[in-house]
Amino acid sequence: MTRYLLFRALSLSLSLIVASAVIFAVIEVIPGDPAAFMLGLNATDEAIANLRAELGLEGGLIPRYVSWVTGMLQGDFGTSYNYRVPVAELIADRIWVSVPLAVLALILSTLIAVPVGVLAAANRGRAGDYATMGVTQLGIAVPNFWFAMVLVLLFAVQRPWFPSGGFAGWDDPWAALRSLTLPAIALALPQAAILARVMRSALIETLDQDYIRTARAKGLSQRQSILRHALRNALIPVLTIIGLQFSFLLAGAIIIENVFYIPGLGRLIFQGITQRDLIVVESVTMLLVFAVIVVTFLVDIAYTLVDPRLRRS
């Protein structure tokens, strides 16, 4: 198992290096001069040159890439062109909003999807199974920002149980959780639909195995065979989807954070793009890529805990 994990760690580290090079290259080849954009149309050449020097835009791409990566390894993500503060401070302020939002959405989607998938698989071919799959198909087809608008209309406008936007801050944890509830539900519903279908398919495939038939022949009920034998083996593909969903919820919540005006990493990236704050876009995107790779590695570790065959190999 140790060799397996070391191999995966090396592979993911190489992926991180390649991702950093691609992100830097894509951002840097975008047409336009950030310094000229910030100063406006009436800026003089001298003012633009001075600002480029101040922002570290002088020099070749390779020295700037090496300086950027070295700085990130030391915790220095550079200085925002627009906010004129270290990017690390912006990330530190926003990450305590995005991470709890992603975790809350992932918990909600898992709590919804796993029981729904198990019930659908246990009632395969019956009316409840067809109804469940129809609802999950609808959940996949409808975008999460539509769910967000419906939730705001129902639970913030007609029934003012939750705030319609903004973030109350962690000084009041209850108010902060209320601020994140509707965005988390809007993010969780489409993910729960995907996860429920994966759970159903994996469990149906497991229930057709010979060892499940043997367990049933020994007198175990369907419920007992599912809970004792089938569910754990069916969780292997589900873990992959859960890991990918957390990465998506953390990195792909840009629309939801803008709908609810939540000051998270997604909204920070959106603001950086519109304001051509390239160092913010580069650094936050790289941080999210790192989070995706770390989650992938944790999923690999979870595989070894769930599947004994990986430990023996």
TrEMBL record:
Keywords: Cell membrane, Membrane, Transmembrane, Transmembrane helix, Transport. It is found in: Cell membrane. Coiled coil: none annotated. Pfam families: BPD_transp_1, BPD_transp_1_N. InterPro entries: BPD_transp_1_N, MetI-like, MetI-like_sf. It is a multi-pass membrane protein. One of its GO terms (molecular function) is dipeptide transmembrane transporter activity. The keyword Transmembrane applies. Belongs to the binding-protein-dependent transport system permease family. This is ABC transporter permease. The lineage of its organism: Bacteria, Pseudomonadati, Pseudomonadota, Alphaproteobacteria, Rhodobacterales.
